[in-house]
Design brief:
Radius of gyration: 30 Å
Number of helices: 5
Strand content: under 5%
Largest sheet: none
Number of strands: 0
Low-confidence stretches: none
Structural class: mainly alpha
Order of helices and strands: HHHHH
Distance between the termini: 50 Å
Mean pLDDT: 80
């Protein structure tokens, strides 16, 4: 801001004056003191450097956390693709919509727990960034298999309900035809972390 104000003081090549008004409390907030006008510029530069360093650290932390989330998101998306491929029957479209909705709710629950854990870890200021990231990753690696098991269970439940409903409708519409009873299952053994 200082440079911007100085640059705008003189217009159209005319000489101008500028004044820098500072609040002493702002300097105190960053643990800096200035006793003269000549020191002000150096103190402002030091405060800016301190702020930029803090912002850089914050950006790095956010990027690390975003990268971890993205890895789990890609796994979640692949899980959904696998589920959809297994339920590729038009008659089971209703089941897929329900499964998709329920798995999304489980994904949201995973993200909330992930974010809450990051907040908890971040409040422990005694840890370094790598230690925080390791703890968060360990937590997520423990939570994701549990979430995946819940996804499998809900997908099987919804699939079986819909398949049973369709089978009952089929039997009701043609009671004279014998039906070969096929086991109603959704094989999800290949859904792994």
């Amino acid at each position: 801001e200082y440079g911007q104000k100085i640059g705008r003081a003189g217009r159209n090549g005319n000489k101008g004056d500028s004044y820098l008004i500072v609040c002493e409390d702002e300097f105190k907030r960053y643990g800096k003191k200035t006793h003269s006008t000549s020191q002000t510029k150096a103190v402002i530069a030091a405060i800016r450097k301190q702020l930029n360093t803090a912002k850089k650290k914050e950006r790095e932390e956010k990027q690390f956390v975003a990268d971890i989330k993205d890895q789990f998101f890609q796994t979640y998306i692949q899980t959904c693709r696998t589920l959809k491929d297994k339920i590729d029957d038009q008659a089971m479209k209703e089941a897929w919509q329900s499964i998709q909705h329920e798995t999304f709710l489980l994904w949201e629950q995973f993200l909330r727990a992930f974010d809450d854990k990051w907040k908890e870890i971040n409040e422990k200021s005694d840890k370094t960034l790598p230690e925080k990231i390791d703890e968060l990753t360990a937590f997520a690696n423990t939570l994701w298999p549990q979430t995946l098991e819940q996804i499998k269970a809900i997908a099987n439940k919804i699939f079986l309900e819909q398949a049973t409903k369709l089978q009952a409708q089929l039997l009701a519409s043609s009671p004279s035809k014998p039906s070969a009873e096929k086991p109603l299952t959704l094989d999800l053994t290949d859904l792994t972390f």
